[in-house]
Design a protein that fits this description.
Layout (H helix, E strand, L loop, with lengths): L12 H10 L5 H21 L6 H8 L3 H7 L3 H19 L10 H18 L1 H10 L4 H27 L9 H21 L8 H15 L4 H6 L11
């Protein structure tokens, strides 16, 4: 599967991005109207689901004339893809560890997990719709896999850096280990926070447990990781 390209004659990801940039409203009023449509669309998608949502439903929710929708979006699929792009971009930034974060490598991994799980709980309704659409929409499925690949590569690069420092098992495949970790994290979030299998789970306990699994999976040597860490040293308790 080619990165950034959908199958079945769909537009490539880079082309879609260019087209969306070219159709961005040039006035504050136009931008406000577009955001109004996006907010309404998310509400309707979460309430009615993707298949039962009509463009007229979105316009009714936004309080706008039917024809206004087509000034900004060609169909409900495009506004849905735009929403997904926005949610994913926010999630990727949200889970990135800040440059001024004070903590060791295990603390940083835990930070990312905590941010991810809390966001998945907040966006559970929309995330559920995304997963459903990916089962029958080829473009969404390919897009979903690109998103997953991006998060997997972040973990893979982290493992590779640890291996270079002598702080992780050099004999494991960073790529396959990252793949297994992403599968565990995504499935855990989907079953428990999106489908609601265990609404009673304490996120801090979940984060501590999965961080421990990650550390064991890479055979983390925390002393070596800390000794060679170029990031800010961990905050010391007084």
């Amino acid at each position: 599967m080619a990165t950034g390209e959908a199958t079945g004659g769909r537009r490539t990801g880079s082309r879609v991005a260019r087209e969306r940039a070219e159709t961005q409203p040039r006035t504050a009023r136009g931008q406000k109207t577009r955001e109004r449509l996006l907010t309404a669309a998310r509400t309707v998608f979460e309430t009615k689901g993707f298949l039962d949502t009509r463009v007229s439903d979105i316009c009714d929710e936004a309080g706008l004339a039917h024809g206004t929708f087509y000034i900004y979006f060609p169909d409900k699929e495009e506004i849905f893809y735009t929403l997904v792009d926005s949610v994913v971009a926010d999630r990727y930034l949200l889970t990135a560890v800040p440059e001024d974060f004070e903590g060791d490598v295990a603390d940083r991994f835990a930070y990312t997990l905590r941010q991810y799980f809390e966001e998945m709980k907040r966006a559970r309704h929309f995330s559920r719709i995304v997963e459903q659409v990916a089962t029958f929409d080829e473009h969404m499925r390919d897009h979903r896999m690109r998103i997953r690949r991006k998060f997997r590569e972040r973990i893979q690069h982290g493992i590779e850096r640890l291996q270079q420092r002598g702080a992780a098992d050099p004999d494991i495949s960073a790529e396959l280990t990252a793949e297994a970790l992403v599968a565990m994290i995504n499935n855990f979030a989907y079953i428990n926070f999106i489908l609601g299998e265990r609404d009673d789970l304490d996120i801090e306990q979940v984060v501590a447990t999965l961080t421990s699994i990650w550390a064991r999976a890479v055979a983390l040597d925390l002393d070596k990781a800390n000794a060679n860490d170029t990031k800010r040293p961990p905050k010391r308790k007084t």
